[in-house]
Amino acid sequence: MKIVKVTATPLNVPLHITVMGLDKKTSLAACYVEVETDTGLIGHGLTSITEEDVVAQVINGVMAPNLIGDDPLLTERIWEKMYWTTMPRGQTGYAAHALAAVDLALWDIKGKALNLPVWKLLGGARARVPVYATFGFGFFDREQLAAAAKKWVADGFRRLKMTVASEALKHKDERPVMDAIREDAKRVQAVREAVGPDVEIFIDANCNLDLYHATKLVEMIRPFNISFFEEPLTQNDIPGMAQLRRNTGIALACGQNEGLIYRFRDLLAAQAIDYAQPNVCITGGFTQCVKISGLAASYNVSVANGGAWSYHNMHLQAGVANGSLVEHHYLAVELYKTLFTGLIMPADGWLALPDAPGLGFEPNRDAIREIAKLPLSAGRAKG
Predict the structure, then answer these.
(1) What is the pLDDT of residues 245-259, one digit of tens each?
(2) What is the β-pairing status of strands 340-341 and 362-363?
(3) Which of 6, 119, 202, 280 would suit a FRET pair with 140, their CA atoms being 20 to 30 Å apart?
């Protein structure tokens, strides 16, 4: 079997948010990839949280010509080839995203060729995974946030994640960071009071705080029993995160936007995290994320899904023994519903893995073609 065609399509998917009294139109960017073989098998992949046009150019202009004629089942060989083609000095960034999307498509082909779902090819540790709902976005006011928390609990979710920090460092000249985290503390309190003591709450700063303000926020929200703090510090500052973890005792998680395994090595060696979060749509695909999972296991650290894209990441979390949580990100799931068919919805806080070969869901090519024609929008949601 040989690769005959690789195509990447940049997409800006329109989303219509109609929850908690909101009627808001936004969009979410992604890059969709297909790898075709001479046997007729086609695999698909996805990446996001980056500039989709740039990633598509990397794949179409640099990676695709180098993949024609390769055996798609040789995922390790192809991964190394693409690494040395696009990241020979450890640059990561757009190249890591591009490599991730192609790698996902190759594993989809591998599963279809061997008639097995990807999660079984990765080890088959469990047939269902626990899910947390990312529901608490900055566009909700405090009352809407509390109402949304109640809604997601009523829908069967016992684990909830909300964003904090709201690009606090980026906008520090417009609004003092302390003002932002004081509001965050009130929002966390509102959610805790809305859902009661038995629902787990996670918070995510999306790398928008420094050590001082992250520490202050943790002190303010200590009474509300937060299960983990995701991406608290700018640049995933490893010494700073290790200090935050030691000084506050709060569990920390990060890694969704890291491109190469050495960053996870450094995070683990510094005892900076309680959950490693390689994201298969960003962190070099399944080929690298399995290695990161093994590295984390050597430190007795679990891997968890952060950064959305649950239907790809569920395979990693189900496949490896130290897999754990999958993120049911409201906006990302809406994108999935637009672009793909055959999706299984969570029930009672769990997501069952599909038995279908490969990724277990398929692209809606008519929808993808239609969205690809739309002009890019200025206002986009964060992935």
Answers:
(1) 999 999 999 999 999
(2) antiparallel
(3) 280
Helices and strands, number each (H, E), in the chain: 14, 14
Q: Looking at residue 383, what is its pLDDT?
A: 46
Percentage helix, strand, coil, to 5, in the chain? 45, 20, 35
Quick one: which H or E segment has residue 345? none
Separation of CA 275 from chain center: 14
* Residue 37 identity: T
Question: What's the token pair of residue 83?
Answer: 């690494």
* Helix-helix angle 330-339:365-372, to 10 degrees: 110
Average pLDDT over residues 159-169: 94
pTM of the model: 0.95
Q: How far is 316 from 104, CA to CA, in rounded Å? A: 11
Q: Which amino acid is at 199?
A: V
| CA 275 – CA 280 distance, rounded (Å) | 15
Work out the average pLDDT over 320-348: 96
Q: Sorting pLDDT into bands at 50, 70 and 90, what band is 381?
A: low
Runs of H (alpha helix) within 75-208:
75-86, 94-114, 118-121, 142-154, 177-195
Name which of 272, 276, 275, 277 is nearest 248 in CA terms: 272
CA-wise closest residue to 32 among 300, 352, 309: 309
DSSP string, 48-72: ESS-HHHHHHHIIIIIHHHHTT--T
Q: How remote is the C-alpha of 355 from its chain's centroid?
A: 23
SS3 call for 133: strand
Rg from Cα positions in the chain: 20
